[in-house]
Amino acid sequence: MQRDVGSLPLSPALRARLLAAGFQTAQELLETGPCGLSKEIGISREEALEALQVVRQECAGDAAKTAGGSGSTRKCTALELLEEEQTQGFIITFCSALDNILGGGVQLTKITEICGAPGVGKTQLCMQLAVDVQIPECFGGVAGEAVFIDTEGSFMVDRAADIATACVRHCQLIAEAHQEEDHLQALETFSLESILSHIYYFRCRDYIELLAQVYLLPDFLSEHSKVRLVVIDGIAFPFRHDFEDLSLRTRLLNGLAQQLIIIANDHKSAVVLTNQMTTRFGQNQSMLVPALGESWGHAATVRLIFHWDNTQRLATLYKSPSQKESTIPYNITPQGFRDVQPPPVTQNAEGTEMNPRKRPRREEEK
Amino acid sequence: MAAGVVWVALKGHPLGVTRHHCSVGGPMGMLRAVCPHGPPWYPRVRYGTPWVPIPSPHRSLRFHPRSAPSHSAGAMVVLRAGLCPGLTEEMIQLLRANNIRTVVDFVSSDLEDVAQSCSLSYKALVAVRRVLLAQFSAFPTNGADLYEELKSSTAILPTGNPSLDQLLDAGLYTGEVTELAGAPGSGKTQVCLSIAASVSLGLRQHVFFLDSTGGFTASRLYQMLQARVEDKEEQLEALQRVQVVRMFDIYEMLRALHEVRDCLSQQVESSAGPLKAVLIDSVSAVLSPLLGGRQSEGLAIMMQLARELKTLAKEFSVAVVVTNQVTRDSSTGALKSALGRSWSFVPSTRVLLQGRAVPWEEGAAPHTACLAKSPRQPTGMQVQLDIGSDAVQEQRPVTPTP
User: Fold this and answer.
1) Nearest to A294 among B33, B262, B326 (CB)
2) Helix (H, G, I), strand (E, B), or coil: what is residue B43?
3) How far is it, in rounded angstroms, from Cα A345 to Cα B335?
4) What CA–CA distance (Å, rounded) separates A122 from A289?
5) Mean pLDDT score of chain A
């Protein structure tokens, strides 16, 4: 096929030499053969063979696609994508307001970013999601496993155990209420030990370890194919100090973002990142914006910003391809990430007189 | 060997030059690599090294009256026997011994010296040079012809957003590259989805959506279609006309664009149909990992991509829309499109989208679009966009209520 030499994935030095020698299309390269090629541009025969191998692969890939139609797994019509999306599950967060504004929960195959000031609850939500991804399908979960990459050292196992216990208790209550066969069966495997054993924890101390971990993740995920959630708690921390060359930082972050989106797509898992906040100085005021700069804002598909309003924690959906921007309140309880309890309904005097036998109605915790 | 379509329209030019053609691999030397002069949109690379355009065999010959040839006949083609009638194998060997390997070397060297050192006849060399120059240079066309051709081949596609149409002078022009730039959350993907919905539903044309950020949500596109038309059949048909390709790497993107070109040039009706719009969501996502730092190879690939997009737009009369990020201008603090000065010459129209700066603090500030570069409208025009005005339906309760 008539692919330009400039568009083939060869090393830049080799490409420059090929262009200087006058080669234009891939076809010419293949016609010349390895001996001719090594003579023309002055490289060793092995290198010429390797280069031709790459070229042949590219051209074979092209031919397969044009002949077979949609041979690649990543090309389809919007209708097929719609059907796929409708059958895809969400990872619920146990806070129904947050699930509503996200359109059902944290979506698989997308990158979700959570930004917030220290102490507002980002790590709590990450731990909650690592537990929630394991909820069996009969209870409405995705029955997957979780990978937790920690750069700040904020993962506390006792807290995760508390959250897991509360989640198991919740599912037991549902099973008792409904009394169905598959619920009881699923409950046998859904226990504290199994939850904690399916959270794969990695600790990365600086940005090189983090990059290495992310680039090695596809191999890990192909062995553990049940993983449906990858959490990176603190993507800003290793990149914010000790970096003299800011353009290098931007390049590394962009490469990281592309690698994460490839992981999310290929393994059908959700990627959740947490980010810190930094101050930006405007004309006469300063405001808190997510860290790591403007270009990082494009990496995540869905962006949530957690902030305070006096003593109430609020979550704002700032960027989403399919949901409107909105703000909801949430709470962190001993059981984990939850909704805000509406204030108990106070019955007035007539109400109790009219029906003294009825207990005053209160919203049960969901 | 598979061949592309060859359209040869001889226009009565004294040298029998071809107007449009696609290259066919093969022994037809005369119809082979015809490469025009470097088009005016290739600036010099910032570090001072001149960028030599690599000729593409799929380029058409005409060039606009307003573009002037700025380089010499930039053909880096290796001299080969059969390239033109007077060029024989022994001649090529002799020339090679004197370090003349490509057409550029031949044409730019002093023929008297060459005749002496290679012991070839001066007349033969002059004849060969004339034929090579004729073969490898572009020929001008007059403005009236060009205008007629543009009138017949250019279409204007509505974007589905009346205020944006007004900004773009009635819509997207085919044959041109349009860029939408904006901060995260400013609505670029939404505008792209709206264009896809409008072209696929209103004009019944196929749309190619290349997604490199994972932001394409089919359910949102479906929502937009539902807001425009009631009939379910039409909605599903419109969805089928949108082809989505997900690629997250620059080489995959180049491959995908090459595939589109192949499909179109072979006029395979089944998959690519009457394609009118190609939308690329985030060119910067695949290019920014390569730019910056001390290597300059990122710029080379960026220009390769630029050429693919331009060729696609011009040759097959499609409207190409790309989205880009924004960066802050270090001196003024204003927002401007990313990817630098070299990329700024590639799109002919640039629109800057702005959303709210800090949404959770201020009140609702609407999305605006500002025209940063346009060949037809005054720059600085600003309109208010209405993103998300399509009726958002009741969310069906996906959260399982225990």
Assistant:
1) B326
2) coil
3) 50
4) 15
5) 83
Q: What DSSP line would sit under B199-249, residue for residue?
A: HHHHS--EEEEEESSS---HHHHHHHHHHH---HHHHHHHHHTEEEEE--S
Q: Which residues of B8-22 are buried (b: 16+ CB within 10 A; e: fewer)?
A: eeeeeeeeebbbebb
Backbone CA torsion sign across A151, A152, A156, A162:
negative
Q: Do B258 and A265 touch (CB under 8 A)?
A: no
- Look at residue A71 and tell me whether its pLDDT is greater than 60: no
Contact A136, A190 (CB under 8 A): yes
Q: Are A58 and A9 in contact (CB under 8 A)?
A: yes
A249: Cα within 13 Å, side-chain hemisphere: 19
Q: Least CA distance to B218: which residue of chain A?
A: A82
Its sign, for the CA torsion B271, B179, B202, B173, is: negative
Three-state SS for A341? Answer: coil
CB contact under 8 A, A295 and B392: no
- Which long-range contacts (C-beta less than 8 Å, at least 24 apart) are formed by A350-358? none
Instruction: Give the DSSP H or E segment for A274.
Output: strand A270-275
A324: its two tokens: 């409107």
Higher-confidence residue of B387 and A229: namely A229
Please indicate whether, in this complex, the C-beta atoms of A7 and B77 are within 8 angstroms of each other. no
- What whole-number distance in Å separates Cα of residue B168 and Cα of residue B164? 6
Q: In the predicted model, what is the mean pLDDT of residues A290-297?
A: 84
Q: Are residues B288 and A86, on separate chains, in Cβ contact within 8 Å?
A: no
Q: Report the percentage of chain A scoring pLDDT > 70.
A: 89
Look at B221 and A78 and tell me if their CB atoms are within 8 Å.
yes
Q: Are B362 and B378 contacting, i.e. CB atoms less than 8 angstroms apart?
A: no
Average pLDDT value for residue range A218-230: 93
How many other C-beta atoms can be found within 10 angstroms of the C-beta atom of residue A241?
A: 8
B55 pLDDT higher than 90: no
Query: Does B320 score more than 90 pLDDT?
Result: yes
Distance, in Å, from the CA atom of A138 to the CA atom of B93, rounded to the nearest integer, reads 77
Q: Mention every residue, 6+ apart, whose C-beta is less than 8 A from residue A154.
A: A123, A233, A234
Residue type, B399: T
pLDDT over threshold 70, residue B397 = no
Structure tokens at A12: 């830049």
Q: Residue A36: which residues within 8 A CB-CB, separation 6 or more?
A: none
Cα-based angle B335, B339, B341 (whole degrees, multiple of 5)? 85
Please compute the mean of the pLDDT values over residues A230-259 and round it to a whole number: 87
> For residue range A151-199, what is the model confidence (pLDDT) as tens digits?
998 899 999 999 999 999 988 888 888 878 888 888 888 889 999 999 9
Neighbours of A214 (CB within 10 A): 22
User: B203 with B196: CB under 8 angstroms?
Assistant: no
Question: What is the token pair recorded at B310?
Answer: 């331009």
A260 Cα to chain B: minimum distance (Å): 10
Task: For residue A16, give the chain B residue with the closest CA.
Answer: B297
The one-letter amino acid at B165: D
| C-alpha triplet A296, A300, A301: angle, nearest 5° | 140
A223-227: average pLDDT: 92
Supply the pTM of this predicted model: 0.74
Give the model's confidence band at B268: pLDDT under 50 very low, under 70 low, under 90 confident, else very high. low
CA pair distance A195, A145, nearest whole angstrom? 8
**SS3 of A189-252:** HCCHHHHHHCEEEEECCCHHHHHHHHHHHHHHHHHCCCEEEEEEECCCHHHHCCCCCHHHHHHH
* CA–CA dist A63, A51 (Å, integer): 19
Q: Cα(A168)–Cα(A143) distance, rounded to whole angstroms?
A: 13
Query: Can you tell me the distance from the alpha carbon of A209 to that of B132, in angstroms, rounded to the nearest whole number?
Result: 57
Alpha carbon distance B72, B104 (integer Å): 8
